[in-house]
Amino acid sequence: MKNTVILGALTIAGLSAGAAAAGTLDDVKARGKLNCGVTTGLVGFAAPNASGEWEGFDVAVCRAVAAAVLGDSNAVEFVPTTGKTRFTALASGEIDMLARNTTWTFSRDVDLKFEFTGVNYYDGQGFMVPKELGVSSAKELDGATVCIQTGTTTELNLADFFRSNNISYEPVPIETNAEAQQQYLAGACDVYTTDASGLAATRATFEAPDAHTLLPEIISKEPLGPLVRHGDHEWGDVVRWTLNALISAEELGVTSANIGEMAAGTNNPEINRLLGTEGTLGEMLGLSADWGKNAIAAGGNYGEVFADNIGEATPIGLARGLNAQWTKGGLLYSPPFR
Ligand SMILES: N[C@@H](CCC(=O)N[C@@H](CS)C(=O)NCC(=O)O)C(=O)O
Prior knowledge:
By secondary structure, the chain is α/β, with parallel strands linked by helices. It has helices at residues 2-31, 57-70, 86-91, 106-110, 153-164, 177-185, 196-204, 233-252, 259-262, 269-275, 281-285, 291-299, 302-309, and strands at 34-38, 47-48, 54-55, 76-80, 97-98, 114-116, 121-123, 125-130, 144-149, 169-174, 191-195, 212-214, 222-224, 227-229. It folds into two domains: 9-122 and 224-328, Periplasmic binding protein-like II (D-Maltodextrin-Binding Protein, domain 2, 3-Layer(aba) Sandwich), CATH 3.40.190; 125-220, D-Maltodextrin-Binding Protein, domain 2, CATH 3.40.190. It has 13 helices and 14 strands. Helix 2 runs antiparallel to helix 12 (291-299). Bound molecules: glutathione. Residues 39-42, 82-83, 101-103, 149, 152-154, 176-177, 194-195, 198, 222, 224 line the site of glutathione (GSH).
């Protein structure tokens, strides 16, 4: 009897290990579609366009992974998630990966048992206020009502910031960015706080963006990146190296305009390995030789994805800042393709 119980436990352990070993990569290939968790809508990062197609900076990561694995950047089911629902969606297997301006933190990595596969945007938390409030620093916000999205790092940073500055606030908890925008514009809160990139994206959709200021304080580190389930290493490698492919492509000068030409072979061996005309990197990942080429062709290299969706020429108008390549004073640094 005792043996049976032990055997039962072993079987369960064996089964779950088996499921992890077979892994998400096989599931995605068999399904022919990537289930990618995104936001419920944040223009520039992830939102459906006028024809209902999802687009944005995070959406581009999903599309690049689908292109790398399935050869088709449209083979993606975009699953909208809120700050609260995103982690259960990933843990339960409803989604294969999450690309939703999610901050890489110790507890999400270690306690929630996820694996962050890199950073696609180095951010920090900021504050937006109506100009008419006449506030020029977050330290002047004593007693303010603050719109804040639940299930986010934002909640904890806010509490820390006000406590350490000996000032008080009244939180107005909200579920989605759309709701936050609505409440903030209706005056239900004096301040909206979230990732500075999210504030810029939100303000860009206002009728009068100039009537609102982003305060100078950035009160936290928010390294945002895609994540997968802990223990799903082959799949984690695919997501990690797809993001690295986009970052390396920018560093190496591979663009959506020249990729066709470069994929015929160049005199730079690293470009050749990245695009699959030399070496066997694709095979090592369990993918086709042209996985990197497909990932980059999906929406361009990292710099193109940035410029097209959130860059200075878009209404969101974000500068590269920390998200410049390491060769240009930023933090983007892909390990080598060899
Ligand atoms: N980076 C923070 C905050 C992420 C977050 O939820 N940001 C909001 C505001 S920028 C958002 O994306 N909302 C989109 C939505 O409501 O679906 C975290 O990981 O907790």
